[in-house]
Amino acid sequence: MAMRFCILGSGSSGNSALVVTEGSRILLDAGFSARRLGALIAAAGESIERIDAVFVTHEHGDHSSGIESLKKYPNLKFFANAATARAVQKELTWSPHWRIFATGSSFQYRDLVVESFAIPHDAEDPVGFRFTSGLDGDLFSPRRTLAWVTDLGHAPQSVRDRIRESDVVVVEANHCPRMLEADPRRSWTLKRRIGGRHGHLSNERMSELLSSVASPRWRRIYLAHLSRDCNSRDAVEHALAAVRLILSCEFSIVGHGEGTPFYELA
Ligand SMILES: [Zn+2]
Ligand SMILES: [Zn+2]
């Protein structure tokens, strides 16, 4: 079986995605309550009881707030680096089975090769992930890689290298700089933080990143973690125009609070 992937929800109100292979069922972040995750996973045709592990990118609530209520699934394993696990643990009334990895390391989890890499964001030790399953030349389970890169103020070379060698990439298109500038609800300080080098990737920076890497290996790119107030599908589409001219892969813009259907990395 090839790797299957869907985003359960994306945006500042919560982030989580589901990766399913022959031998593993994992969540990527848990920014929704266990009840909500259960409903979203069931809507995708899977069951929360069958999830093996949760991989946590960083401690911000929109990525980790569901961990407290996942207490009712005591067999779940939680993978994070030490600084993220420590920061999340501080907010919990229970102790999950933490599986600690070193940022930048690569390890095997069941039939997945998992790689973590540092990303520039205002959290303790935030990471992006790559998940690889399958084998080169295997007709039924070809080697496929998914990269997950949200919550980053800019994209250093190390991030560019990781996404280049991936089949499917989830990348942040957080805000339109003009909409952020004009937003009356956010303070000047917060705007500086969001738009800064350890904040969130703007549509323009996303477009520059994809255009400069422009990997022929890409099959599909998801634009995710859109701001509800400071972005729109139209604004993302506008920034994508330059990328579409040089890339023929599929693009999927994931609206604020939305999820996606399963995609099979066949
Ligand atoms: Zn964050
Ligand atoms: Zn976030």
Characterise this structure.
With 266 residues, the chain is an alpha/beta fold. It has one domain: Metallo-beta-lactamase, Chain A (4-Layer Sandwich). It is 26% helix and 26% strand. A 7-stranded mixed β-sheet has the order 6-5-4-3-2-1-14. Strands 7-8-9-10-11-12-13 form a 7-stranded mixed β-sheet, with helices on one face. α8 links the parallel β12 and β13. α7 packs parallel to α8. The longest helix has 14 residues. The radius of gyration is 17 Å and the shape is globular. The termini are close together. 47% of the residues are buried. The model has no long low-confidence stretch (mean pLDDT 96). The site of one zinc ion has 6 residues, from α2.
Write the layout of secondary structure elements.
Blueprint: E1 3-9, E2 16-20, E3 25-28, H1 34-43, E4 53-55, H2 61-64, E5 77-80, H3 82-89, E6 97-100, E7 106-109, E8 112-118, E9 127-133, E10 144-149, H4 157-164, E11 168-172, H5 177-182, H6 188-195, H7 203-213, E12 220-224, H8 233-246, E13 250-253, E14 263-265
Parallel strand pairs: 3-4, 4-5, 5-6, 10-11, 11-12, 12-13
Antiparallel strand pairs: 1-2, 1-14, 2-3, 7-8, 8-9, 9-10
The chain binds zinc ion (2 copies).
In brief, what are we looking at here?
With 266 residues, the chain is of the alpha/beta class. 26% of the residues lie in helices and 26% in strands.
